[in-house]
Amino acid sequence: MAEEERPEKEYPAEEQGIEPEETEEEKRLDMEEGEKEEEVYSEEGREALVEDDEIEPWEEGFMEGAEGPGQQGKCRECGAALLKKEDTVEKEIDGEVCFFCSNKCLEKYEQEH
Ligand SMILES: [Zn+2]
């Protein structure tokens, strides 16, 4: 019954002349380090997924068009970032659609141009 559970210490001859490259403890430490690395990687992966989910489709379009003044994403008058679509004032001027952060900026722009 207890034969299979005999501790290895009862067989010192097996260990004599054999130098193990790694002790059991070292092997365990290696495994723990490996697990920690995996945890970090999966956490980063999860964060990246959350970040992707936080971007609404229209926000992506907003950011893509955020280059240069007057384009969707920036106020044509003051250059402020247009973060909320519902707060953005859209106006076609000289056949070009312009975006403003407020009606104030739209009026100012129309007066100046
Ligand atoms: Zn503005």
CATH topology of the largest domain: Ribosomal Protein L24e, Chain: T
Task: Summarize the helix and strand pattern as letters.
Answer: HHHEEH
Structural shape: rod-shaped
In angstroms, what separates the terminal alpha carbons? 97 Å
CATH architecture of the largest domain: Roll
Nutshell version of this structure?
47% of the residues lie in helices and 9% in strands. The chain is mostly helical. The termini are far apart.
Please explain how this structure is put together.
With 113 residues, this protein is mainly α. It folds into 2 domains: 26-67, no CATH class; 69-113, Ribosomal Protein L24e, Chain: T (Roll), CATH 2.30.170. The chain has 4 helices and 2 strands. A hairpin with a 2-residue loop joins strand 1 and strand 2. The longest helix is centred in the middle third of the chain and has 31 residues, at 24-54. The protein is rod-shaped, with a radius of gyration of 33 Å. It starts with 11 loop residues before the first helix and ends with a helix. Residues 64-71 have low confidence and may be disordered. Residues 75, 77-78, 80, 100-102, 105 line the site of zinc ion.
